[in-house]
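Design job #97: recover the sequence.
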C-alpha cells in the first residue's frame, strides 16, 4: 500500500471517532473560556496567564496520541492494519503525520483565539501589546508544545502498546518526574537537568520575556531542540517495538 493511502486511511480513522470531536471541542472551549475569565476577573492580569491551560492540554493531547496506537491494540484492529501494511513502520509515520496535521491548526486557532479574547477583556492598563515579538513567539510556542507532547504520547503508546501502562508512564513523566528529579539530584545540577525534561522544555516555548517562568527554563531555541529530541527518541523506540513484536 502506498504511503499516501496509509495516511488517508489513518485520517479517516481519526475523524471517524466521536472522541476526536469531543477532545478537540473540549480543548477549544476550555482554552478560550479560561482566557476570557482570566482577562475579565484577574486583579493583576499578566500576559502569560492566557497560556495557563496549555499544560492541561498537553496531557490531554498526549493521552490522545497514546490512544491512537493502544486503542487499535485493545480492539484488535491493529491486526487488520498490519495485514494491510506488513512493513508496519509506515503506519506509525502516518499516525504521526495525521496527528500533527490535525492538532497544529487546532492549537494555532485555540491559542490565537485565547490571546485575542483575553486581550479584549483585560483592562487597558494591563494589556500586553499584541504586536510584541515576544508575545507572538510565545503564542506560536504555546501552539507547538501540546503537538510535540502529543507525538511523545504516540511514541510511548507504540512502545508499550497497553493503554493503562502508557498513560501511567506519560503522566508520571509529565507531572511527577520533574519534582522527583528536583528533590533527588544535587542542587548544583538539579536545575539544569529539570530544565531538560519534556514538560519543562515545552513550557519554555511559551514563557514570556521577564516572566517568572522564563528564569527557570531554557531559552526557546534550545528548549525546542530538547523537546524534538524527546519526541524523536520516543518515536524511534516505538518504531523498534513495532518492528520486533507481534501485534
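Job complete. Output follows.
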Amino acid at each position: 500500500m502506498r504511503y499516501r493511502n496509509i495516511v488517508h486511511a489513518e485520517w479517516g480513522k481519526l475523524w471517524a471517532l466521536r472522541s476526536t470531536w469531543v477532545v478537540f471541542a473540549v480543548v477549544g472551549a476550555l482554552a478560550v473560556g479560561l482566557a476570557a475569565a482570566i482577562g475579565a476577573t484577574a486583579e493583576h492580569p499578566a500576559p502569560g496567564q492566557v497560556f495557563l491551560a496549555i499544560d492541561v492540554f498537553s496531557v490531554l493531547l498526549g493521552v490522545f496520541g497514546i490512544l491512537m496506537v493502544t486503542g487499535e491494540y485493545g480492539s484488535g484492529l491493529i491486526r487488520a492494519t498490519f495485514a494491510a501494511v506488513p512493513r508496519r513502520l509506515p503506519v506509525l509515520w502516518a499516525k504521526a503525520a495525521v496527528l500533527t496535521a490535525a492538532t497544529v491548526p487546532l492549537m494555532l486557532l485555540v491559542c490565537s483565539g485565547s490571546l485575542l479574547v483575553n486581550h479584549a477583556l483585560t483592562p487597558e492598563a494591563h494589556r500586553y501589546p499584541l504586536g510584541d515579538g515576544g508575545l507572538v513567539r510565545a503564542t506560536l510556542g504555546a501552539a507547538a508544545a501540546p503537538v510535540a507532547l502529543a507525538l511523545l504520547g504516540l511514541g510511548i503508546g507504540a512502545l508499550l502498546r497497553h493503554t493503562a501502562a502508557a498513560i501511567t508512564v506519560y503522566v508520571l513523566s509529565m507531572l511527577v518526574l520533574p519534582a522527583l528529579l528536583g528533590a533527588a539530584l544535587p542542587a548544583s545540577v538539579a536545575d539544569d537537568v529539570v530544565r531538560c525534561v519534556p514538560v519543562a522544555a515545552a513550557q519554555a516555548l511559551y514563557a514570556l520575556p521577564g516572566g517568572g517562568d522564563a528564569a527557570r527554563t531554557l531559552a526557546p531555541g534550545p528548549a525546542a531542540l530538547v523537546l524534538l529530541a524527546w519526541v524523536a527518541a520516543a518515536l524511534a523506540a516505538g518504531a523498534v517495538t513495532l518492528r520486533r513484536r507481534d501485534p
